[in-house]
Design goal:
By secondary structure, the chain is α/β, with parallel strands linked by helices. The chain has 15 helices and 9 strands. Strands 4-3-5-6 form a 4-stranded parallel beta sheet, with helices on both faces. Strands 7-9-8 form a 3-stranded antiparallel beta sheet.
């Protein structure tokens, strides 16, 4: 917890208890969501969950009261949810109604590596009948109107300005004004290329401890197929040409990011070193290994191998496996609260009838 001294008095910052993390696709957002979920679950926070039950269902839904599980009861008892950490269509005024007075965080990625990651994960080449071979990216951009061929497939929104799509950028108005709107709405925009550095800024923003920031990668790209995704200068230019808005977003927030690092002061490097030391110790303690590969060996999912303790397991909170658990936790929390309220109510007075 951060401590500052003013005129001889010590002041401790208070950890933020209302957080909205706007997930984006293919940006290490699942690892960051795991950090938020672990923090919230350890403190019995209430999580925003879609009324239909699974966090993934928010991908095509707006995060607004009518789409949120148990919204009316949570608003009635506590005035809103504590945390939102899922994908979802986003309008600030509607999310404010669900998680009021929240700190807003999101994550973005360099548009070149972001496109390549989406290309691999969503298997774009297969969807346009392009066989895997050398320089598959170069040949992909030779396909006429590839955007329209992919736009309505799973993950197809990421083929062109995917970050802008996730953050609901209005491409019909001035893009600079839209980016400045994002700057006003988000307290911190994390850069996935500088993930650990971003966590130090997050620590200061949320008034967290180092242990709150620890993580183990949920997914990690293997190098099995890297020779097929050779990003030449020509490919890089084609990616940036088709992702101009994402490039503008990244350039703007990269500048904001380093300004925040500079404002953090000389202790930044010391704190970053401390975080990475603790991350190495966590890796050694939990003895993580690759459980296996999926999607034609393009990704590995990690799992605890040795020292399979509850402490190590909690670093593998994943959206897919915790939607139902979060629903159950919320139901239990509501039931306990309602039971407590009923116990506190005075017993009804007995009515005496006339004889």
């Amino acid at each position: 917890m951060l401590t500052k001294v003013y005129f001889g008095f010590f002041f401790r910052c208070q950890p933020r208890e209302h957080i909205v993390f706007r997930k984006t696709h293919k940006t290490a957002s699942s690892t960051l969501a795991c950090i938020f979920q672990r923090y919230g679950m350890s403190r019995n926070f209430s999580f925003v969950i879609p009324a239909s039950g699974h966090w993934a269902n928010f991908e095509n839904l707006w995060i607004k009261p009518s789409n949120v599980y148990k919204y009316e009861k949570v608003m009635k008892y506590w005035g809103g949810f504590d945390m939102s950490v899922c994908h979802g269509r986003y309008k600030r005024n509607e999310v404010d109604m669900v998680v009021p007075n929240a700190t807003y965080v999101t994550i973005i990625r360099n548009p070149v590596s972001h496109f390549v990651s989406a290309f691999v994960y969503y298997n774009y080449s297969k969807r346009v009948n392009l066989p895997y071979s050398e320089n598959v990216l170069s040949r992909f951009f030779e396909i006429k109107d590839f955007q329209s061929k992919l736009r309505h497939t799973r993950g197809g929104q990421q083929v062109e300005n995917g970050i802008a799509h996730d953050l609901i950028i209005d491409t019909t108005v001035n893009i600079t004004e839209e980016i400045q709107r994002l700057h006003r709405e988000f307290d911190l925009v994390i850069l996935s290329e500088y993930f650990d550095e971003s966590l130090i800024l997050l620590k200061k923003l949320l008034c967290w401890d180092f242990n709150d920031l620890l993580y183990l990668s949920i997914r990690k790209h293997t190098k099995t197929y890297d020779h097929l995704y050779n990003v030449t200068n020509e490919v890089r230019d084609r990616i940036l040409e088709s992702n101009k808005i994402d490039a503008a977003i990244y350039t703007y927030f990269e500048r904001v990011f380093w300004n925040k690092v500079k404002a953090y002061g000389p202790k930044f490097d010391e704190d970053l070193k401390e975080l990475r030391l603790r991350l190495r110790k966590l890796q050694e303690e939990c003895n993580v290994y690759a459980l296996g590969r999926y999607r034609k060996q393009r990704f590995m999912r990690y799992k605890v191998f040795a020292n399979d303790t509850e402490y190590c397991k909690k670093f593998f909170i994943i959206d897919d496996s915790n939607s139902k658990q979060s629903q159950k936790d919320l139901r239990d929390k509501l039931r306990i609260y309602e039971k407590t309220r009923n116990l506190e109510k005075p017993a009804p007075k007995l009515q005496t009838g006339s004889r």
